[in-house]
TrEMBL record:
This is MxaL protein. The keyword Glycoprotein does not apply. It comes from the Bacteria. The lineage of its organism: Bacteria, Pseudomonadati, Pseudomonadota, Alphaproteobacteria, Hyphomicrobiales. Pfam families: VWA_2. The chain crosses the membrane at residues 294-316. Keywords: Membrane, Transmembrane, Transmembrane helix.
Amino acid sequence: MRRPCFRDIRFWLLLTALLCFLAALIVPAAKERKDGIDVLFTVDITGSMNTRDYTENGRPISRLDHIKEVLRQTLIDLPCQSHVGVALFAERRIFLLFNPIEVCANFSPIMDSISAMDWREGWEGDSHIADGLYRAIALADDLHSDLVFMTDGQEAPPLPWSGGPAFDGKPGAVKGLIVGVGGYTLSPIPKYDENGRPAGFYGENDVLQESRFGIPPPDAVNRPGYNPRNAPFGDVHVNNNEQLSSVREPYLKGLAQKTGMAYTHLTDAPDFIDALRIHATPHPVNVMVSRGPVMAALGLFCLACVYVFLPVLLWLQRQSWWRRRLPPLSIMVR
């Protein structure tokens, strides 16, 4: 019977690989302390979110599709014992899909809910951003979670010249982020027919260009056709490019200052995750981290040394043109 050669390095590498694979199976997971968060993601699904001013793999994608990709990557990054809820915004109302739930135990349903978000779920075409934000803040406060409100900030119909509604809550009571979505240059808004099929883009006459509600602006008296009773806004046609869309960053920053939240512009997932870590409220959690993958990788490396690297070195040593460049391996390999 041929005895194993204990002076052969391959024997020790195979033994090490065996021990590593056994350790990967039996070594218990270790506790690691991380910062978890509880957050309600509220996503604007109104028509302007269909604007394609982001790119993915060289092709244009809509703002809503980019949000979904960023949230999917964010969900992967969050540690276990973090809690995530998802809500949709349209008109001025917030529709809660589900309360914040633990991310690891409910990873698949959360991911499926994010992937299924669609503009067709909207119940009305208007977009009252400030009203929606205030309601989202109240909802997050009831759920005892932080808030991430993702929108391009385009009010439809436009706000009156006197401004938007006042915030009657307590600034800073709910922490989180207002996320400005979209590019800084004006882009056309896709238009769809009643069956949800593409029908070009919105034109100048398809949308309201200014608010005709409330008190008219001070310069209305100088407009053609002005009548204080019958035509307080005049009869002149105004084009404020409301048929085009870009992120309304100054407006969203003003809302952030008014509500005590932070603002960030959505670029990519790493930047968004960094901003979320900075502005969300962390709570320490103990996460079980498996050592198995590390031990298994070490075992695979040992096997690669035996069946790949050492045979290559032995072959090179037999080549006369390379023999002088390598130390002799006969002492280690028998």
